[in-house]
Fold this sequence. Notes:
This protein has 19 helices and 21 strands. By secondary structure, the protein is an alpha+beta fold.
Amino acid sequence: xxxxxxxxxxxxxxxxxxxxxxxxxxxxxxxxxxxxxxxxxxxxxxxxxxxxxxxxxxxxxxxxxxxxxxxxxxxxxxxxxxxxxxxxxxxxxxxxxxxxxxxxxxxxxxxxxxxxxxxxxxxxxxxxxxxxxxxxxxxxxxxxxxxxxxxxxxxxxxxxxxxxxxxxxxxxxxxxxxxxxxxxxxxxxxxxxxxxxxxxxxxxxxxxxxxxxxxxxxxxxxxxxxxxxxxxxxxxxxxxxxxxxxxxxxxxxxxxxxxxxxxxxxxxxxxxxxxxxxxxxxxxxxxxxxxxxxxxxxxxxxxxxxxxxxxxxxxxxxxxxxxxxxxxxxxxxxxxxxxxxxxxxxxxxxxxxxxxxxxxxxxxxxxxxxxxxxxxxxxxxxxxxxxxxxxxxxxxxxxxxxxxxxxxxxxxxxxxxxxxxxxxxxxxxxxxxxxxxxxxxxxxxxxxxxxxxxxxxxxxxxxxxxxxxxxxxxxxxxxxxxxxxxxxxxxxxxxxxxxxxxxxxxxxxxxxxxxxxxxxxxxxxxxxxxxxxxxxxxxxxxxxxxxxxxxxxxxxxxxxxxxxxxxxxxxxxxxxxxxxxxxxxxxxxxxxxxxxxxxxxxxxxxxxxxxxxxxxxxxxxxxxxxx
Length: 627
């Protein structure tokens, strides 16, 4: 048997899904209805500009009105309106988008893409909060009759003669008991501020009272008078809709204060403006960032034709730029039906790549134009740049010319400059260039001083991204390795051919090693004797560079958890050429030998911050007794 047919979808089954589950947040209803009203107003403006409407436009605006007694919210516009047939077409046919039809009809018009609505479902978000919805409307078309549509949330509706006498539409929501939180002026103001702050048509919500100067009183003091005016909640032409040539620094800074009123001034900003192969506008700000991983994400706001969509932009903006602040507006970013989430699309990847390029170009421009100013900002922007260098190959390629390395003398170098600076002194006997670095300059000062005495330079790598940055440098830089300055004694960090000769016999080496192994009772410490410069410390405690780095990454959640669970193991390097070792060998008292060895070992622990608690107290008491 073979049969073909059409699957039937009954509105009584799909309507509850649209009402209850289409939208992730019921406050979206106000965004959708206000956006529809803006659409209708924009269409009216477009028809007038095309000569298809010759009447007076009047003051185009959208009004939101709250009646707390009647528990109704009304969204009104003076846009194109509808007649009864259009209500049947656009309202009763679920998922028929009037905006889509309008854009197709006037696709050659310059600003057709200003129309916001796309899916034809936004209207039904009203039933998430209302148990009855009314439409009172009058079409702009000559001779049109007003029409009224009512629906109680079921699949039944009624169309009767309307009462509206001027062009436009009123949407009246009778709020249900479960949604009475929206019968609040403060709540509606919050939603409008969130979603409609930058819509292209003025949005009125009630009135506001301002105190304005009114001359002076008899004593010459300024007087003020109360002036009542419309409460317009939005800025219809935000700065990202303007050309950069129209704007001054003050405009960008003022806009930043509006977005983030409690933040410090940004370091600088990037104005995005592209119309091919996708449309994208926006302004991204570089904020001052603390040197930690408590990133204040979700500070970039995504808009679609000036309608706020979300502040979750991780697919559009590269991961390393999630620390930026600002706005992005694009009609070409694919949204799901409820306009709440992004959908995978080639445009998202293109926009991501474009933003990466713009940021890299801006940083390169600042670096080349005013290096001193760039270096002054490095403590704030270094985290951005290093994060991008580590995580994004395209950014890495550009950033290699403006990422900076900073040493303990607070001098900054590009990668090429630093290579030239240290090649002569820090190339080992095998031709490997070794960069030394510290992540805690104060704590590792004795190691830094030992390295500088040998003519070595030490970099500061103390940002939370530097563990990964160090690894990335080793991958990218030819025949170069990086070692933390306390990974070994200075003589062994960069192996040379002119190593100091040993002054101990084999028997003496065995004797000294035995003394230290007996004196050191802490587990995880392995004693080794080395022939070092006599001026170096008698004992140094170090951790293998590889193991320490893996453990650091494990603490940051870098996929190295295995290493994080391993016990700490240290190397105790005894300097066989130091005079203290000679003293230990010369005394025949085992107790004195043990005391000297323990004291030298504890000093080494102290320099690494590894001596604490009762052991530190014991060390202090022993030191006093030795004075």
